[in-house]
Amino acid sequence: MSSNAEQYYKKITSPECRYGYLSTLPERKQQENEWLEFKAADKIEDRSIKENWSTALSGFANTGGGILIWGIKADKNNETGIDCASALALASDADIFAQKLTDCLLDAVAPAITGIQIVSIKKDNQKAGFVVCLIPEGTNKAHRAELSSDKQFYIRIRDKFHVPAAATVRSLFDPRLRASLVPSVTVSPANHKDLLTLWLALTNDGNITGKNISIIIHRHKSLSFLPLQSGFIHSPTSLSERIPLVVIPSINPDITQDALFGFRFDNHTSLQQGFDLMVKVSCEDCPLLTWTRHIDFKELFNPGRLRFTLFEK
What is the Cα–Cα distance from 221 to 307, expressed in whole angstroms? Predict the structure, then answer.
């Protein structure tokens, strides 16, 4: 499904719209928004062209993409506080203006953005006109404005380009930058034939440290909670089939936190068909994920780490 910017770009560049439609936008007082920006092109130095172009490339590519229309002056609407088209400010030679944008494209933003479309729209055979640019959302974020005065990363919010907070920039660089806490159980047979223990652990398979970790256990009715003497765990004082715990310490990447807590069962007869164990885990800046594991009866007598699988609806 195409974005609002793509649909609007197709409309304004279609044969039935083009110059005639664009020239009416000031009369319509067309508002700028999160995917539409106007820039005057009549009295602008090359340096300002490059800086505005660089900022728009970064801001639109780091959000949802957008359209930059050169040749229209925008002013703030006193009632709404939003910039809107106010007057025509055409490029004196739209083709040359478009070429300037193309020539500095590779230098304007890093990393480069693919799929950018630049078209000059003129009236009849005149040189003056608009330059319409479609900037798609970037696939290799975050994109930095290399030709802006501050060489910053930008995002688009409503009708303005803004420098985002550092945490937002980090998420743009790698939206997968997060902790991934995968539970597992280790079977520990006891000497007594009717006593077995399952120790639950978490492994951080992610690429940052997991902090403020929360765990919810949906246990089998035959399992009883095995309290631990640990200063790291808020252990429940009563047993239930849904046991919430909060693990205080952080878990670094590629580290397994063993023996977070245990379960004990001393009657095997009710477990002949095996049983399901569900664990819900979340940590700071990460959503709650549900992990499940069917534990086969035979696995109860073969010590080893049994990993869970992510539950997907």
Answer: 21
| Under 8 Å between Cβ of 284 and 255 | no
DSSP string of 136-156? PPPSSPPPEETTSTT--B-EE
Chain segment 6-58, per-residue pLDDT in tens: 999 999 999 999 999 999 999 999 999 999 999 999 999 999 999 999 999 99
Q: Which domains does the chain have, with CATH numbers?
A: 4-173 (3.30.950), 181-310 (2.60.40.10)
- Contacts (Cβ under 8 Å, ≥6 apart) of 20: none
Whether residue 103 contacts residue 72, with contact meaning beta carbons closer than 8 Å, is answered with: no
* Cut 0.85: pTM above it: no
Q: If we measure between CA atoms, which residue out of 249, 160, 148 comes closest to residue 202?
A: 249
pLDDT digits (tens, 9 = 90+) for 192-229: 555 667 788 888 887 777 877 878 777 776 676 665 44
Render the burial of 91-118: b for 16+ CB within 10 Å, e for the rest.
bebbeebbebbeebbeebbbeebeebeb
